[in-house]
Amino acid sequence: MQSNGSSVLIRAFLFATILVTILAVGAATPAWAQVGSWGYTGQIGMLSGTVDDTAFAVGLVSEYYLAPAFSVGGDLLLSPTGDLTLLSGAATARWHFDLDPVEVTPFIGLGLIYADYDHGSGAGRFNADDVGTILPLGLQVDRRFNENLSIGGSFALNLTSLDFGGPVGKDKSFTSFMLTLRYRPD
Fold this sequence. Notes:
By secondary structure, the protein is mainly β. 13% of the residues lie in helices and 65% in strands.
């Protein structure tokens, strides 16, 4: 069950994402990339609000540009630390807005997530795993060094259908905060 704090965080995140997207669309020109080219992003950061509280994570994003300011691709997220191991892959759509020298990229995706939760020891030990769906909703902001390379950050609200059963129950959402290093084609 979601707590009031989580519900407020979800609403605030959705409001902020919509607001930043509207401002970016109104104030920005589309970020131009070569149609038919690939871009890549490496990520390192943390997950918050998981059943194991906060966890370290790494990610990789690949994106194919269907239009100069629109790409589709895959997001891979791995969190192998603590009692909880997460592995997810999602197909994502990204809209790129150029606020020279900053690029704002809202994204949405749909994919699968695998989670393995091993907690405690002895008689109180709890071990469960589940495969479910994941819906990442997020915003990435990057500062360009040159035409192709940028550094920035990404925030995503990840809605899931994970259910560990027992005393843990459902894990409906977690957030990810990632530092990004991005390659964008000309």
